[in-house]
Amino acid sequence: METYLLDWANLLFRWAHVITAVAWIGSSFYFVWLDDSLERRPARTDLPADVDGELWSVHGGGFYNARKFLTPPAHIPGPLHWFYWESYSTWLTGFGLLTVLYLFNATSFLVDKSVADWSAPQAVGLALGYLVAGWAVYDLICRTFGQMKRGDAIVGVLVALYVVGASWLAAHWFAGRAAFVLTGAMLATIMSGNVLMVIIPGQRKSVAALQAGRKPDPIHGKRGKQRSVHNTFFTLPVVFAMLSNHYSMVWAHPLNWLVLDLLMAAGALIRIYFVKRHTADPGAWRWAAAGVAVLLGVIAWLAPAPPSSAAAELPPPSYAEVRRIVGERCVLCHNAQLASKGVMLHTSELLLGHAQQVYQMAVVQKLMPMNNATGITEDERALLGRWYLAGAKAD
Ligand code: HEC
Questions:
Q1: How far is the C-alpha of 66 from the C-alpha of 218, rounded, in Å?
Q2: Of the candidates 234, 196, 193, 200, which has an alpha carbon nearest to the alpha carbon of residue 220?
Q3: Spatial CA neighbour of 224 closest among 71, 11, 111
């Protein structure tokens, strides 16, 4: 019953998380596009002094006229709309999903004993610490170097190096899948932290100063802009880190942290392309080309070696061998008492009924045994594969 309810919590958090993330990324993309597409001086001589730019757009049968003011105008006639719940609700639902999936099942999902042998409470503590420290160190980098001369560039380089270091650490502390999700969750925490701790408070202070008849401190605008640029370039990498944990070919690699960093870099390059394209930069395509080149490089790098011809010529293995392997490597977590994900493999009938899933999980995707808890060998995986491809028969 408990697993059943946890599965529901998982499904509902995931659903809500995808929807809130779509809303957040959608509004973020929209405002980046809007800002880059505004018509400004000198092309537009007719703009009032306090208006930085303007554009017209059409959507859903209506025509919209957006104007950008760099400081809040003295009088705002209607309510001022803020955009932050998209970000907060994405973080909250994501943290809920992380909790029901990874923190409640720390021994199966967070810990891989061949990486680091933590107890469940240690692993949970480390995962939470990783998220909190992730934000604290990033914030320190921005505050220390952000306002220097060429501060944006210095911070950009330091943050990139910091992400590489953090992903390396995650890959040396947690199971591959968890390392990818936690690195993504750390970046996502930074993104929401930027909204909660820097961007929105800065905007509130500027509005309050103007309403009190004072000139707002420009530091708020500068700081907010720097964080908002980081958030723009984090979006594609974070979504990649979140989705990639379904693909063992990326996280099961011995240098999985490097794989993750390269693929996140490809995402950031592609995001730069989109941003440049809005400003009609004719060289924008180079960024997309660089991102695609990195992707293709990783695809070529991770390509599995072709099966040796000797293996293909071997006769199909005996069913007794198959039962022995499944008995030793799988039944521990797939039996009448403990049926992980409802899968039981302790009788011949059940094994034959699940042959296709066994092949998928243990041979193709290598997701099972979970974190290879039972130490299955590559030869045993290959043997299960030959048995399945020869028709998965019980002799
Ligand atoms: C240490 C425990 C453990 C061992 C050993 C183990 N599994 Fe699993 N298995 C799990 C857990 C936990 C899940 C549920 C995973 C999830 O919810 O994503 C699972 C899920 C599965 C699923 C269902 C996957 C799905 O998403 O529908 C299959 C099939 C499976 N295992 C096959 C195997 C095979 C084959 C072996 C042996 C080669 C094996 N398992 C060994 C723990 C284990």
A1: 23
A2: 200
A3: 71
- For the CA atoms of 143, 148, 150, 151, the dihedral, rounded to the nearest 10 degrees, stands at 0
Report the separation in Å between the CA atom of 257 and the middle of ligand 1, taken as the mean of its atom positions: 24
Report the amino acid identity of residue 288: A
The pLDDT assigned to 394 comes to 87
Q: Are 347 and 389 in contact (CB under 8 A)?
A: no
Burial environment of residue 75 by CB neighbours within 10 A (0 to 12, 13 to 18, 19 or more) = exposed
| 39 neighbors 54 (Cβ within 8 angstroms) | yes
Q: CB-side exposure of 381: number of CA atoms within 13 Å?
A: 17
**361: closest CA among 246, 240, 241, 242?**
246
Task: Please tell me the distance from the alpha carbon of residue 171 to that of residue 113, in angstroms, as a whole number.
Answer: 12
- Which residue's alpha carbon is nearest to atom 36 within ligand 1? 330
Count the neighbouring beta carbons within 10 Å of the beta carbon of residue 302.
Answer: 13
Q: What is the pLDDT of residue 128?
A: 97
What's the 344 CA to ligand 1 centre distance in angstroms?
9
How far apart are alpha carbons 182 and 25 in whole angstroms? 19
Q: Which residues of the chain have pLDDT under 70?
A: 307-312
CA–CA distance from 65 to each of 34, 56, 58, 78, 278 (Å)? 11, 5, 9, 16, 18
Give, in order, the Cα–Cα distances in Å from 5 to each of 12, 104, 113, 196, 334: 10, 12, 28, 32, 19
CA 336 to centroid of ligand 1, rounded, Å: 14
Cβ pair 127, 178 in contact under 8 A: yes
Is residue 24 a contact partner of residue 86, using CB atoms and an 8 Å limit? Answer: yes
Residue 334 and residue 341: Cα distance in Å, rounded?
9
Q: Name residues contacting ligand 1 (CB within 6 A).
A: 108, 329-330, 332-334, 340-341, 343, 357-358, 361-362, 368-370, 373-374, 376
Q: Name the residue of 14, 356, 368 whose CB sits within 8 Å of the most ligand 1 atoms, as the mutation to test its pocket.
A: 368
